[in-house]
């Protein structure tokens, strides 16, 4: 396989690449609230946190 083919493997990036990871500490109650929001909105924890950050004013 040539170099171009190797770099094209995997899922395509949609929008800006999400290549930075963070780790946070939450209380059990905060995690429960986050999971309830995620379930209600049908999104992942990561999607939910990104949306909350983007919507923050």
How many β-strand runs? 0
Number of helices: 3
Mean pLDDT: 88
Spans of at least 5 consecutive residues whose pLDDT stays below 50 are none
Helix content: 40-55%
Please state the structural category: mainly alpha
Q: How would a crystallographer describe the biggest sheet? A: none
Strand content: under 5%
For the termini, the CA-CA separation is 48 Å
Shape: elongated
Rg of Cα set: 16 Å
What is the H-and-E element order?
HHH
Short account of what is shown:
With about 55 residues, this protein is mainly α.
What are the key terms here?
57 residues; 3 helices
Structure characterization notes:
With 57 residues, the chain is mainly alpha-helical. It has three helices and no strands. The chain has helices at residues 3-7, 28-41, 45-55. The longest helix is centred in the middle third of the chain and has 14 residues, at 28-41. The radius of gyration is 16 Å and the shape is elongated. The protein starts with a helix and ends with a helix. The model has no long low-confidence stretch (mean pLDDT 88).
Secondary structure blueprint with pairings:
Elements: H1 3-7, H2 28-41, H3 45-55
């Amino acid at each position: 396989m040539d170099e171009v083919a190797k770099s094209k493997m995997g899922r395509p990036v949609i929008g800006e690449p999400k290549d930075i990871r963070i780790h946070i500490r939450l209380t059990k109650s905060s995690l429960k609230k986050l999971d309830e929001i995620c379930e209600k909105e049908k999104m992942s924890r990561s999607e939910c946190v990104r949306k909350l950050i983007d919507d923050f004013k």
